[in-house]
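Exercise 7 asks you to align residues with tokens for two separate proteins.
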Amino acid sequence: MESTIILIIILTASVLGRANSVALATCFLLILKLLNADKFIFPYLQENGLFLGLVILIASILIPIADGKVSYISIRNVFTSWLGIFALLVSLFTTYLSGLGMNYLTIQGHSEIMPALILGAVIAAAFLGGVPVGPMITSGLIALGLKLFNKIGS
């Protein structure tokens, strides 16, 4: 019951904050709980959901290449420009942060911070025009900050 109340609070905040992806995901989980399918589907989602979500996200990003809107020449030009090189470096850093974040949340077991990450994403979507895809990077920044803090404090 407590988890349902928390999900309803997240749903309310995400609807008010216009974070539609968070609202949809929360509704999906609430429906699974209502149908008592959570016992079967939650373990699968917890194990494979991130991977499946990334596959869909990356596929949607690759569509301009797949449908021919991006050519080999334009790709070559991007990688020889300062913007392309900068994008590559930022991508390396954010992908590294995402890995740190996933490790921090899952392997190190700090999933209790997820409500704060979601709320931050919802607030950013509502008031800053953000898109709530950053909890993994945010948790990566937290993990990196803690690593640096521990090194400095040692």
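Second protein for Exercise 7:
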Amino acid sequence: MSEPVAGPAEILGSAPVIEALAALEHERWAHWQRYLHGQGELGEDGSITIPAALVGRWARQMATPYVELSEDEKESDREQVRRYLPVIVAAMRGAGDGTCCRH
């Protein structure tokens, strides 16, 4: 008798896959923070002041549903998603055996 095959939710929710995706998310966040911090002006107290033009742009983007973004803005989001796909594809190919996430 064969073992039951794990479904997508079990595979993608497994600890190795979650850890691999969390590591990618941290890299994405750290990259964004480096960019964000580089755009602002460092104050004497260690705070960062973000230029009003960027605050306005990002506020508009935050308030805009994805389908209403410009094609360039959508492509920027797609680029981020593409970073996660190799882990997801490898996890599905490995059927939850953890091989997607071994370094």
